[in-house]
Amino acid sequence: CDGLRREDGKKVPLILNGDDPYLRGAQLPDWVEPVWCGIQDENCRIRAVDIRHEERGERFTIRDEELGLFEAFIPTVGLHAVQDALFAYAAAVTRPDAGRADALEAAAALADYQAAGMRQRLVEKGGVKVLEDCYNAAPESVQAALDTLPLLTQSGGRRMALLGDMKELGTDTVALHRAVGAVCAGQLDCLWTVGALGAEIAAGARDAGMSRVQALYPAGDPDAEAVAAEILTGLAPGDTLLIKASRAMHLETVAEALLRGLMQGNL
Predict the structure, then answer these.
(1) Deepest of 24, 127, 209, 258, by most Cβ within 10 A of its Cβ?
(2) d(C-alpha 189, C-alpha 209), whole Å
(3) pLDDT at residue 159 in the model
(4) 238 pLDDT above the threshold of 70
(5) With b meaning 16 or more CB within 10 Å and e meaning fewer, what string describes 87-100?
(6) What is the C-alpha to C-alpha distance for residues 76 and 55, in angstroms, rounded to an integer?
């Protein structure tokens, strides 16, 4: 970090998550000026308040202790997405000459956000919502993705997921996959898994009392067309399906096959 120190002695702004207790307790260099952003912590300079969940996004108020209050909307769902939006806003307004007009422009620009490929991309075909979030996965990000499903099903419909291996989790890999399965049992109506570690997710869901669980290709690489065909037999208009796994599982190929099937009316 010393390479970021300014030669004129002025402090360098550093945008930090104010809701993270580990960061709050960290020792920062004296040449850094922290810009705390958060939702829960009232001591953040930049905070999201009055968050209103909608099926197509999140509306909220940005409370900037230096520049004022600003209404914002992001066309994606979840509190984690709101937190990310705060970081983007902060990056736009922490320069020395930023004023209220800049803050208004930055808050308004959040509405133009577009999800990058495979990162929480929401597509609706044949009456089914598919949340393609398969760029990568870890227990925390799977939990965040699962938490978005109620926001996408406010008008009804079943909550479903296709989950696969979460790579590089170390010695607790099996336990972490089973823990994710237990979470699924309380949040999903139906679960499909692929891969050997995905099968551990399925086992954890069954152990937690979930009955509508199917482990596909537990011993080998999944065939995208076959997996998509199997899932299509269990979908109906009004359903919402999350697709998530580590990048190595290439579940975007399943998503593509599934969307083709939905476009062709193969329900």
Answers:
(1) 258
(2) 12
(3) 96
(4) yes
(5) ebbbeebbeeeeee
(6) 9
pTM score, two decimals?
A: 0.74
Q: If we measure between CA atoms, which residue out of 82, 123, 81 comes closest to residue 241? A: 123
Integer Cα distance of 123 and 8 in angstroms: 49
Determine the Cα–Cα distance for residues 126 and 239; give it in Å rounded to an integer. 10
Q: Which two tokens stand for residue 161?
A: 């997921």
Burial 74-84 (b: 16+ CB within 10 A, else e): bbbbbbbbbbb
pLDDT tier at 264, thresholds 50, 70, 90: confident
Tokens, residue 158: 């079943």
Angle at 151 between CA 180 and CA 182, to 5 degrees: 15
Convert the pLDDT of each residue in 153-191 to its tens digit: 877 889 999 999 999 999 999 999 999 999 999 999 999
The amino acid at residue 141 is S
pLDDT at 10: 78
Asked whether the beta carbons of 127 and 157 are under 8 A apart, the reply is no
